[in-house]
Each structure stands twice: as structure tokens, then as C-alpha cells.
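User: Please fill in residues for this 401-position structure.
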């Protein structure tokens, strides 16, 4: 584990982004570039950083010019993207009212660190310029990292930005950190004051989506529950049975959506309409909204059907056919014995007929519902190994009609 500034600089230079920047700019380049936040924290913990956040101790223009290309600027937040690199100017933030987006202004690196969410995210190492290799952090950051605890930098942290409450649960789960006692008091005070009502649903949704994409989204949802934050986001939100969610995740294939499955488990008991309304409020894409709402509404019913299905065609019918949502089948399989759900997820949903509607039309079947009935019969015969090829599948379809 890197502990000295020189070790940290060497470890950062081994990462793709910093090494590429230093190669293009040179170690003596000014204004100075700093790596700040999670990347430094993770190196101190002996972890491999997932992302590298960069701040510039001065105007972004000289860095953009040195990197080449036309920067895409976001002036309100003093950020830019140039040459595939995301940069932010060191800045301070003020909040015109609780829950509002901040007003930003240029500042020093020290001021930039004081605006951050938690002390363990204030570590910064200088990559270029006279301070190259310098390590900075908030006064208690090293202690909090050593004690593996999350603490805010000031008592108004959650009042200024209530989305930090969701972020706290995400970091607690990912890092396996406790929450410092004073910060717990601040959480309770902020929730009692109703701070989550001061921020838009879309901003809450953005944080929920990040939380659900954590390596262990179940643990993250449990942290949200243990901190009593989930029910304050919405009374219908809460992962009551984390083992149910884990059983559902164990049934999914790698390409399936873990985030949808866990959120559906956390909304179980809601109607499809209520779930859809919440997901709309949180700004979820329409496809995610529809899949999660269907899963919430139908999981119990599909689970009962799967419980009594044995033949492959029965399992496929109970699941809703080859185009059913895998999240729904996984959650249904977690509610009751999972063998039928596992068979559908691993094998049955991937099997496809050798014939289509056009073949039935050519055989004289009139367009309309009869086509769907014929294809369903052919699929059932195929799954039960009674119609392995196109000819037998067509015969099964015509016989059923």
C-alpha cells in the first residue's frame, strides 16, 4: 500500500490517465494538475482506482491548449473536456438555498478540498509544477481513513447537498466503512428537517442509479436502509429482504441487469402504477421504468406459476415466453424454489424456432391471432423435444390450428 507522497506519485504515474498527461505536459507544467478524491483514497487503501479525477490549480485554458483540440466547456461548473480528458478548475461552492445546485467560483486547491463531501475523499496529490508529489487532505482525513469511517467536513453538508446522503450509503457499502458518530447525528437532523424534499427527484435518481451499479448493490441498498434514508426518499422504497435480492442476482446471467433486479426487490409490494410514478420522478429511462414496474407487479404471480411448472413448455409458458424480462423471472425464482426459473434463464429463453410467421402464411394460415397461436404451439413442441427441425415445427403449428 502506498503511504508516502513519493509512493503515491509513483503509483499514480502507473495509471493510464496520469501517465498520459505527464507524458504530454511534462512534470514541470503549470498551472499544476492534481489528482484528487477517490483515486488517491483507493491507492492509500491498497485498491486499484476505478476513476481518476483531475483539478487544475488555475485557468483551464493553458492545459487545454497544451493538450490540443477544442475543449468542450461547462462554464457554470468550471469544467471542460479536452482530448478525452475531463478537467475541473479548483473551485469553491456556495449554496443559495438548501438542496440547490451550487454557485461555483475559482479558488485554491485547499479551498477545493474543503467543499468535498467526506473527509476521506479530500486526498490530493500534485502531478505537475513546483509542488509535484505533494499530498494534501482535510485535517482529519488521515485519521478517518485509518479508522475506516466516513465523516462530513462540516455540519451543513447534508443541508447544502442532500444527495450526499445516498452517496454516503454507497461509499459505506463499497469501502466497508462505518459512519462517524457526529455524522450520524447530522444524518438524523437532516432527515428530520426533510432535506430530501429540497432536491429534485432526478438528482436523487442519479444517485440511486450509481448506487445500484455498485459491485454489491444489495449491500448498498442495505446501507441505505440501515441509515434510515430509503424510506425518506419514498415510503415504498426499502430492501426488506436482502437475501431475496441475493438469490435473484444469483439466478441472472452476466448480461442481465442487476441494477433493475435489486431496485425491483426494493419496491416489492408496490403496484405497477406506483412504481412507474416513482421511477418517472427519479428520471429513470422509459425502458427501465417499464421493466421494473412489471417485475414489481408480476413477480409473486409468476413465482406461483413457476412453482408448479415441470415440462420445459410449461416453464416457458409460466415465465411468459422467450421475450419475458429476465429480472422478473429471477425475482420470481427467488421468491419460491428456483429450479424452473434457472432453467428458463440459462437455457429455455435462448432457444429459438426454426420457423416464423411467414412460414405459416405460406402454408395458408390467415394473418392474425392464428399465427401467434401456431408459433406458440410450435415452440412448446420444440422445447419438449417433439419438434427439433423446421418441418416438424411447422407440422406442430398446423396441427394445433
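Assistant: Residues filled in for all 401 positions:
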Amino acid at each position: 500500500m502506498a503511504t508516502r507522497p513519493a509512493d503515491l506519485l509513483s503509483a499514480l504515474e502507473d495509471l493510464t490517465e496520469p501517465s498520459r498527461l505527464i507524458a504530454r505536459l511534462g512534470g514541470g507544467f503549470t498551472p499544476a494538475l492534481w489528482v484528487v478524491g477517490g483515486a488517491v483514497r483507493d491507492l492509500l487503501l491498497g485498491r486499484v482506482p476505478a476513476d481518476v479525477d483531475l483539478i487544475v490549480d488555475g485557468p483551464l485554458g493553458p492545459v487545454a491548449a497544451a493538450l490540443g483540440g477544442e475543449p468542450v466547456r461547462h462554464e457554470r461548473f468550471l469544467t471542460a473536456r479536452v482530448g478525452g480528458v475531463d478537467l475541473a478548475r479548483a473551485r469553491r461552492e456556495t449554496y443559495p438555498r438548501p438542496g440547490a445546485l451550487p454557485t461555483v467560483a475559482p479558488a485554491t486547491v485547499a479551498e477545493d478540498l474543503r467543499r468535498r463531501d467526506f473527509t476521506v475523499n479530500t486526498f490530493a496529490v500534485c502531478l505537475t509544477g513546483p509542488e509535484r508529489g505533494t499530498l494534501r487532505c482535510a485535517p482529519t482525513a488521515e485519521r478517518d481513513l485509518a479508522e475506516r469511517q466516513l465523516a462530513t467536513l462540516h455540519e451543513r453538508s447534508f443541508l447544502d447537498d442532500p444527495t450526499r446522503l445516498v452517496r454516503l450509503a454507497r461509499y459505506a457499502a463499497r469501502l466497508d466503512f462505518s459512519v462517524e458518530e457526529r455524522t450520524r447525528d447530522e444524518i438524523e437532523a437532516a432527515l428530520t428537517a426533510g432535506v430530501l424534499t429540497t432536491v429534485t427527484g432526478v438528482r436523487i435518481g442519479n444517485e440511486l442509479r450509481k448506487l445500484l451499479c455498485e459491485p454489491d448493490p444489495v449491500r448498498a441498498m442495505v446501507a441505505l436502509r440501515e441509515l434510515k434514508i430509503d424510506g425518506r426518499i419514498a415510503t415504498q422504497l426499502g430492501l426488506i429482504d436482502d437475501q431475496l435480492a441475493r438469490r435473484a442476482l444469483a439466478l441472472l446471467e452476466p448480461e442481465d441487469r442487476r441494477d433493475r433486479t435489486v431496485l425491483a426487490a426494493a419496491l416489492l409490494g408496490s403496484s405497477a402504477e406506483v412504481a412507474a410514478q416513482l421511477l418517472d420522478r427519479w428520471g429513470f429511462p422509459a425502458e427501465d421504468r417499464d421493466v421494473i414496474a412489471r417485475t414489481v407487479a408480476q413477480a409473486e404471480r409468476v413465482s406461483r406459476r413457476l412453482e408448479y411448472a415441470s415440462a420445459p413448455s410449461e416453464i416457458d409458458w409460466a415465465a411468459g415466453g422467450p421475450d419475458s424480462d429476465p429480472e422478473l423471472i429471477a425475482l420470481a425464482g427467488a421468491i419460491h424454489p428456483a429450479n424452473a426459473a434457472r432453467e428458463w434463464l440459462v437455457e429455455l429463453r435462448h432457444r429459438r424456432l426454426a420457423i416464423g410467421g411467414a412460414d405459416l402464411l405460406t402454408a395458408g394460415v390467415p394473418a392474425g391471432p392464428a399465427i401467434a397461436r401456431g408459433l406458440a404451439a410450435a415452440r412448446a413442441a420444440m422445447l419438449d423435444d417433439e419438434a427439433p427441425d423446421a418441418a416438424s415445427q411447422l407440422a406442430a403449428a398446423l396441427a394445433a390450428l
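For context: The mean pLDDT is 95.
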